[in-house]
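Case study 2.
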Amino acid sequence: VDLRGRDVAVAGIEVGDLDLAVDHPRRGDASVDLRLARRGGLVEVTAAKLPVRVDLLGGLRWRARQPHEIRAEVQRFAIHEQLEGLVDLPVRGVVDVEATIAGPMSAPEGDLRLRGHELRYRGADLGELDLQAQLRGEQATADLTLDGDLAKKISLRAEVPLRVVPSRRDVRWLPEGRHRVSLDVDALDLGAVDRIASLGGLRGHVDVDVGATAEGGTPTVELGVRTDDLAIEGRAIENGVVLDLDLAFRERLLKIDGSGRFGARGTLELGATAPLRVDMIRPEVAWDRDADAQLGLRVTGIDRQLVGLAYELPPGIVTTLGFTIAAKGSPRGYTGGLAVRGAIAHRDFGASPLRLDVGVNAREQTAKFDFGPLKGVGDLHAEVATRGDLDGLIAGRVDVKEIPLVASVRTEGLGLQLLEPLLPDALFNLQGKLVADVEAAGPLGGPAVKGQLAVRDTAVTVVPLQQRFRGIVVEVEADGRKIDVRDLQARSGDGVAIGHAALELKDDGYEASADVGVRKLPFVRPGIPQMLITSQLAATARSDAKSSEVGLKIAGTEISVLGSTGAAADEIPASDAITYEDGRARKAVAEDISPPPDEVAAANEAVPPEPPAPAKRSVIRVELVDPLAITGPKVAMRWNGAVIATTLGDKRDVQGQLDAKDGFLEFAGNRFKIESGSVTLPQDAEAIAPFVDVVAVTDVQTTRVSVIVRGRLPKPELILQSTPPMEESAILKLLLVGDENAADGDEGQVLAGAASLLAAFQNSALRNYVNERTGIDQLALTFDEDVSQPVLSVGKRVSEDLYVETAMRVNPKRGKNRVEARIEYEIAPHWTVESFFGDAAVGGIDLFWEKILGKPNNPALRSDGVTKGRGSDGEGEPK
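Prediction:
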């Protein structure tokens, strides 16, 4: 049979030029020649000896035990071009392949040669690849070299016992056979590896040497790792990190030796031995409890720069730290210890030593920490001791809640500014002192606590409220399992909040209560009139294994609404054509540490699943003891009612609501009469934010206008309706200037009013209206290092290829522009030039190449999934 095809395509997929020749003599073996040419590449398969018999009546019979001769060759196979339209692989480059297989398919012999040229993977240059492999008998060998930007050179030689029987479709590894593996990696570039598999921004170069042998299922391994100039991107470490690590496993003993240096004066010394039983046949890796083990680690010279990689110290604080870890284990028992020594200094007040000692054995565990006193920073002393049977805990014979505990914490005045790096983003600039003298004794699950704790002269800014609270005082006294918050105070502006609370711990839960009085406490929010709040709050809470209840009674509440509002009109509102970006968004790198699927399946079979715990019942009660009054020059309302929400599992039942029956409010310069108002909790058990629904009406000339505020707090939806019907932008013009056909001179007033409303409410129609008239394509509000250094960027896409942006920094750091201009120009598809320059004579130019992998080839779709000039969803909500 001879078959020739040119420009062949199957189901719309290009195959190329095809030549096939099959020779089947009456006696003897068949032969096959296949040649396929496609897009400059060539595939040839020749089976000079193929022991098959074709019987037109009885079918095809393959004589697998007879000799075979098969050869395959691939030339100039450009991976991306050849697979385009079939599969989008993140690999680029050209490969050549030669492969042969001969002999009976019950025990074949094979050879493989693969060469890769200019290989790239996910943007990393792998370079030139050469792989040679052989199969002889039941032993496979492979030699691999790789030269490129990923590493100066990677060499691998492996000899592995394999049983390959194609006639039975059987490929089996023989763990009891002879193994030899050697790997040599010269100057592996971690920055290039980070582009392939995220290393959290790790940079530097690594040399690796591995040698391993095994026979009879018992391995011997030697590993050497050498690093220099290790660093984390964006967090420079002086002199980098240099590490020298040697690992050896032989005769059931793992031995590790290491040394290194980092930073200005940091050093590291490591030594460890661990007895392991390794059986490749079972397979099994187990700790040998009948032999001795030890660990020793010593680190010195940890300075402020190194601490800053994990914890941001307050300005003026410097450190020098070191620690030692020592552990020993034997059939007679084990011990371990950690000793930290160092000093913390303040540039204005001198230095104070820091000391931490931890000791662990099978029966007792202790820890002691001492620091200070240091003027301007304070002091802290803590001790913890437990008497836990660790062997019993690991074996499941001991309940961790029953382990005896003795602990104490003392400080005469610890500066709370040390805790600021641990605060959430919503809190900023924490100041004040912590005073404590607390002791605890009893089981870990419920120790008795005795002592006093106080926070004094404290101030903190709550960023979402744009408000600073000062004069914060918290005084707590504990006695046994009762905790009493005797004094709770906070001030903001001329307002004050004063209260007290109590907590009693139970074996299966707790009971708590709190009373807080608020007097003329200011509330400031963009787009909402400033308010002064006076109220008395009484809260109770109870929880046990079966249920929980929270109650809130609100009495004597008066909310005075002032005439002015926050400066919301200066903010640029959300829009379908505006993309908001948060420069402080954090990235997380997740690592899958789950066991292999077969281990999971085996564990699931061995341990039957426990029945699900019964759903816990929770109740929330909110009651207005007497009417809540909202008064001011432009508003008058009185709210009454109560809400009870009962949740069981994923179901919630809500009874009652808070109602407003009458009153008025002034909106956009017009007085509206309140027709109805309600506040309740949503039926969704996962939702917490209250749901508000208020309807108010007024008459403007001959038009009846309704304002509806509906949705979840804190930013419900604003709906404007009218009779006769008009567009919402026309209704707003009518309310602000008395005419829905506003003149150009009134446009600024209308835009300012719309911007103010959009700061507090959601309304897509007003967003579109504002965007059409401002012409802004993008607004980015970011921060350099903290909220005291905001960066406001306003941009406009001048044409399809040109984007212009201006940025202004408040409190810029030295070496950064206060005012900066940036230009982005798309010079060709996927290629962009960006340039910036500012008033500090700081500038730069960058060239970017962008490619979307695994997504539709839509040129309007950016790599972050946002269409140019639009928000990230159909409603224009900023993300």
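The longest strand covers residues 547-565.
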